[in-house]
Design brief:
Elements (H helix, E strand, L loop, with lengths): L4 E8 L8 E7 L6 H11 L3 E8 L2 E7 L4 E2 L3 H15 L5 E6 L2 E8 L2 E7 L4 E2 L6 H5 L5 E4 L4 E4 L3 H6 L4 H4 L7 E6 L5 E7 L4 E4 L3 H15 L3 E6 L5 E8 L2 E6 L1 E9 L2
Parallel strand pairs: 2-3, 4-6, 11-12, 13-15
Antiparallel strand pairs: 1-2, 1-18, 3-4, 4-5, 6-7, 7-8, 8-17, 9-10, 10-11, 12-13, 13-14, 15-16, 16-17
Length: 262
């Protein structure tokens, strides 16, 4: 009989349960095919499910939404690191992940876990047809990164007031859209929408901060900043820009633990 695999639900980029961004973390006992991983992610029905498979001194890490595999996900990586550090029962040094976006790392920095991710600075580019109508915003500037579109708007109030047409937004040719502005109590605020991959609004998006960090670093003249993602659950992300890398700092809370018996 095959032993059941361990599974956790973790709220990431928060110190309190039922806030931040929930992710499922599944520790695989052996390689599994893509169809199985996608079925598990659909069953979890969270914005991301992370699958970990030990590989030497590192872990192979893959991320799935309920509808598709993605190339980079911050909050599910933070959730995975939190689970692994908790299993170790101590400070635990550094954890290395092997992913579709290369080698990523996680390390404890006081009460935070800090993720070492690639910087994804956006380039100014006109918005594709239908995007502005679907979002219902008037941008100050429009940009494109490796995965997503970024729109800067005039104020935090404009970010919070956005009410996209998700059906229309899902037809636009992009993985997701970041809407951002300077913050009132944080350096910057943002929201992230990705209906094309099954996520109308993501609560807190680590990969978006790989774009936001270099974007706002250039505008504010800072290397270290604090961003707030103004979704209904909300979450704070500490960012530090160092050359072609972005360090994302946050906390996480395990809210559920069980076994996958499939």
């Amino acid at each position: 009989m095959v032993a059941p695999m361990r599974l956790w639900q973790v709220d990431a980029f928060t110190a309190e349960p039922f806030a931040g961004n929930p992710a499922a973390v599944c520790l695989l006992d052996r390689p599994r095919d893509d169809r199985f991983l996608q079925q598990v992610a659909a069953e979890m029905n969270l914005s991301e499910t992370a699958f970990l498979l030990p590989e030497g001194d590192a872990y192979r890490l893959r991320w799935f939404t309920p509808e598709a595999e993605v190339d980079l996900c911050g909050h599910a990586t933070l959730a995975s690191a939190h689970v692994l550090f908790t299993m170790r029962g101590g400070p635990g040094g550094e954890i290395t992940f092997l992913t579709r976006s290369g080698r990523l790392a996680a390390a404890r920095r006081g009460q935070l876990i800090e993720l070492d991710f690639p910087a994804l600075p956006p380039k100014e580019e006109a918005s594709p047809p239908g995007l502005l109508d679907a979002l219902g915003v008037k941008p100050v500037s429009a940009h494109r990164s490796r995965f997503d579109r970024l729109l800067e708007v005039e104020s935090e109030k404009a970010v919070r007031a956005g009410a996209p047409d998700f059906r229309a937004l899902g037809t636009v040719d992009t993985r997701g859209v970041v809407v951002t502005a300077r913050g009132e109590r944080h350096d910057f605020v943002s929201r992230f929408f990705a209906p094309a991959v099954g996520i109308d609004e993501d609560p807190v998006t680590g990969s978006a901060h790989c774009v936001l960090a270099p974007f706002w670093a250039a505008r504010l003249g800072k290397r270290e900043m604090t961003g707030f993602q103004a979704s209904r659950r909300g979450g704070e992300v500490r960012v530090r820009v160092d050359g072609d890398r972005v360090f994302l700092g946050g906390r996480a809370v395990i809210v559920l633990e069980g076994e996958l018996k499939a």
